[in-house]
Amino acid sequence: MQTKTAEAKMITPYIAVNVAKFIRSTSRPHFPPHRKKKNGNGNTSASPQNLSHNLNHKDWLSPNQVLEIFQSIQDPCSVIFLWNQYTARKDYKPNEAIYTIVINKLGQAKNFDAIDNIMGRIKHERRCRPLSDHFFYNVIKIYGNVGSRIKRAIDTLIDMPKAYRCWPSVKTFNLVLNMLVSAKLFDVVDEVYVRATMLGVEIDACCLNILIKGLCENGELEAALHVLEEFPKQRCRPNERTLSTLMHGFCKGGKVKEAFGLLERMEREGIYADTVTFNVLIMGLRKQGRVEEGMQLLETMKSKGCEPNEGSYQQVLHGLLDVGRFLDAKEFMSGMVKEGFNPSFASYKKLIDGLCNENKIRDVDWALKLMVKQGFIPKMGTWNHVLECVFYGKA
Length: 395
What we know:
Helices cover 69% and strands 0% of the residues. It has 21 helices and no strands. It comes from Erythroxylum novogranatense. This is Pentatricopeptide repeat-containing protein.
């Protein structure tokens, strides 16, 4: 008991000072940064009124002059008014650059109905030469990623050869597949995939990787393995991304043994296992509480010339914390910091809570100092836990 009291007297000043700092910092009133008001002397050359005047003051405008007008638009919501004004001109003759800047501005304004109308005009007017795959890639990206209009993205892809006289590249095709997987529309993925031949797309490894990703996320691991067997049929070779995606699916499903089987396959086929691959396996071991094996795998990856990253160390650290090995976690954290990697805020919190529960005051003091040194500010709950440990010897 005397030792405990002595430790408390020694450590209390450091903790008390930091608690006081924390209370002062959280009790200060917050004033938003002062913002200067804009004066009325700004440049108004890009106002809708002036741009409208520019579209009207000449009987003939070159495509470059039209492009400059649309590039000058600062308010995306005004682009549709100017576009309608331009389409009414006798010299209306848009090109790909003009279409692109207008559609980009409409995307910023979230005016997807107007984009639909322009795409319809392109189909029927055909006033400019066939547009490039790059143009349609951009339109599809706006539909899917900005507007969440995935059906319109799919329709645009399918319409490209006949309606727009442009064959999609495999990059554009894969963009749509990836959108569908991200949106978890797994049933539609297959419907688009089977259209590859009709669209003139030659399947590549990236395309098959996207299918594997979707199947793994949907828990269809056997089907994902069947896609793996499709690689040689499509004259493709699986890469580290292919197999690490499968490994992640197996580890997520608790099939760590099967995941390690894929690692052995990588070694047999001469595929380099990168940091992501090893991190997936360490995570799988951690989820099963196999901490020692995770630590061994960390050393194995180093011996194979694969440099671990912060995520590698973080997975092992969390594994030690998960099973309550707090002193081992402290030692591992110390080594991690020496290697130049910073533990997360959650790691510090969990370590300090665990050490407090075991009344390890000196170790709590060490972790707290390191946490603050790294730039983290412990929350009030953590300070309360620390003070209870110091003064009362209990959590």
